[in-house]
Amino acid sequence: MNTAEYERMYKLEDTYWWFVARRALVEAEIFKYYQNRTDLTILDLGCGTGSMSAHLSKRGHVISADYSPHALKFCASRGERGLVRSDAMQLPIASESVDMVVTMDVLEHLEYDEKALCEIHRILRPGGHVFATVPAYPSLWGEHDVALMHYRRYLIPQLRSRVESSGLNVVRITHCMAMLYPLMALQRKLSARKPYNNPPRAAMPNLPPVINTLLIFLLRFENALTKHINWWFGSTILCIATKH
Questions:
Q1: What is the pLDDT of residues 120-160, one digit of tens each?
Q2: Which end of the chain is more exposed for a tag (fewer CB within 10 A), N or C?
Q3: How many other CB atoms sit within 10 Å of the CB of residue 84?
Q4: Helix, strand, or coil here: 52?
Q5: Max Cα distance, the chain (Å)
Q6: Are strands 236-242 and 98-104 parallel, antiparallel or unpaired?
């Protein structure tokens, strides 16, 4: 991503509805497998500006890895210490040394996502889990993806195949961000008719605080349902896999 998008992320990541809801969803899934454990070694792969790393730190030692020095500077400003500048396709981490990998909206940034998944498999300890989110539906491709320097958006069969080809075993895969999907799809279709901004900008419009709060509550309700059901539509895909 370009520097301006990292700056926007840093300002919004702790309060903007989309970041808050996605983080809460992943944390709820982590709790299913690890309860209240605080002794884990965790890789936050593609840590961005570090908000998720800060939340994961209560569970043990967090390695915050990102290829961008801009991202790591923002992480450092949050007080994160375990910072590693790294290519996700060639991690400087010992084999079978990590209990958990969290990689939120990262694989789509990688030209060779299969290599990153193989590296995740290599560094995970047997019984370890990876929690990954990616954007769904190639049909939603637009300025947002260009601004964030994506290579692709995914379909569930495609993501499942790539995860399993790495040697990992998928234990759950589902769409999420489902309740707002119709509005998001409409926004993407309408914006596709317009020329891109120069430079392109990610679709994170400023919202009145009351609307932002309402969206957070709506997606908290969705997250509660997601604990029990798999969604067959939604703008994001959540995949949980393990290493036997």
A1: 999 999 999 999 999 999 999 988 898 889 999 999 999 99
A2: C
A3: 16
A4: helix
A5: 50
A6: unpaired
Query: Tokens 């989309």 sit at which residue?
Result: 18
Contact 202, 5 (CB under 8 A): yes
CATH architecture of 3-242: 3-Layer(aba) Sandwich (3.40)
Q: At what angle do helices 113-123 and 156-165 cross, to 10 degrees?
A: 50
Phi, psi of 41 (to 5 degrees): -100, 120
8 A C-beta contact, residue 44 and residue 60: no
Cβ atoms of 44 and 24 closer than 8 Å: no
Tell me the pLDDT tens digit for each residue of 192-235: 667 777 777 777 878 999 999 999 999 999 999 999 999 999 99
Helix, coil or strand: residue 190 = helix
Closest by Cα among 241, 239, 23, 52 to 129: 241
Q: In what order do the strands lie in the sheet with 98-104?
A: 83-85, 60-66, 40-45, 98-104, 124-135, 236-242, 169-176
How much is the CA Rg of the chain, to the nearest whole Å? 17
Report the distance separating Cα 100 and Cα 79, nearest Å.
21
